[in-house]
């Protein structure tokens, strides 16, 4: 199919294809990409676990560094994704190009800042992230090369999200997935074959991130994408920045709170033992698989609902939410059951020598599996808010799981229940987030028919402000 025809097809299919088909076709590549990312995240942990519990704990600690790098990247990427989808639905491609270029270059600048600050303050940084004295040097070894890739990681996140916003979920999947496969190949070579240890895992991950960046930027450079990245389109105007920040801030705060929550959890677990720290870290990476499926499904839903909202097809907005909410809740229940049944053998792959790690990791996995249907449903409500540009709802829900429903209870549960409390706090926070999601959904669903009623009036009578796109 010629490039122009392909681009036009991606624009019209959002409004013409059946809702289950379009959301599924958008979601499957994203789900595959997230699963591959989860695999290479676990690959680091698996190969490093052969070095010892302290090395496994170090890799777990450094997962917070990834979150820091992605924090501003997520602000720009998710905000740009939402705004671009609405702009494309309203046929404003020139403005969409400006949004993409602005987000891309700002993300790269943030990545450079993280790289420089992290390299200068390396030891205090890993200590703050929760590294214990026995795993501190391993943490430094791992962080060194990850920081070098920080600018490319942040910029890649923007390109990944914006490819989805224009309906190019397959290109997004190839970019993320290729890096993940490469990481799985390089890990045993660097860690075992070249005997580089934890530093080898970091090198493999950094190289994989660079390759992903190259693949993601390729369609923009070769004009196979609808949008273009150009320094000439870099326009951080008040309108563009306010729209990006309004929606993207929810993702940034979510990432920021995830860092805070992980640091608190790492420090509490580390005070008990490196075995508990490793168990919590490994179980978190294992749960990235079902969480990745839910997040991938949500990222397939969000641009569809945003595009339909921008094009004023409100019946499709409601239909998209109903389909996605039921699918996420039922799918979450099925995944939770499967993972819970095999939790023991799965966690045993990463540390058979430590009984305490096995017990804590298994408990943590099974409790989070119980809450997985709730997690899936709340995630779709969150994506609905982001897709419609409802910054308040998106912010409230995106920060609930590891913020308002997590931080107030983590110390109390650790104090009362020790290692068991540390293992169960995330599942409890997932359940509590439901109490926030229900009233948010009621408010947002009321907004859709009222907006539709306004659109039935003559256009000249009720102008729609630019900011509502």
Topology summary:
Layout: H1 3-16, H2 19-48, H3 53-61, H4 63-89, H5 93-120, H6 122-129, H7 136-148, H8 150-165, H9 169-193, H10 197-221, H11 238-272, H12 274-286, H13 288-310, H14 314-341, H15 343-348, H16 355-370, H17 372-387, H18 391-398, H19 400-404, H20 407-417, H21 419-455
Helix pairs in contact: 2-3, 2-9, 2-10, 2-13, 3-7, 3-12, 4-5, 4-8, 4-11, 4-13, 5-8, 6-7, 7-10, 8-9, 8-10, 9-10, 11-12, 11-18, 11-20, 12-16, 13-14, 13-17, 14-16, 14-17, 16-21, 17-18, 17-21, 20-21
Features:
469 residues; mainly alpha; disordered C terminus
SS strand fraction: under 5%
* Overall outline: globular
Largest sheet: none
Task: Report the total helices.
Answer: 21
Task: Describe the protein's architecture and organization.
There is one protein chain. This protein has 469 residues and is mostly helical. 84% of the residues lie in helices and 0% in strands. It starts with a helix and ends in a 14-residue tail after the last helix. 59% of the residues are buried.
Could you write a compact summary of the structure shown?
With 469 residues, this protein is mainly α. Helix 4 runs antiparallel to helix 5, helix 8 packs antiparallel against helix 9 and helix 12 runs parallel beside helix 16.
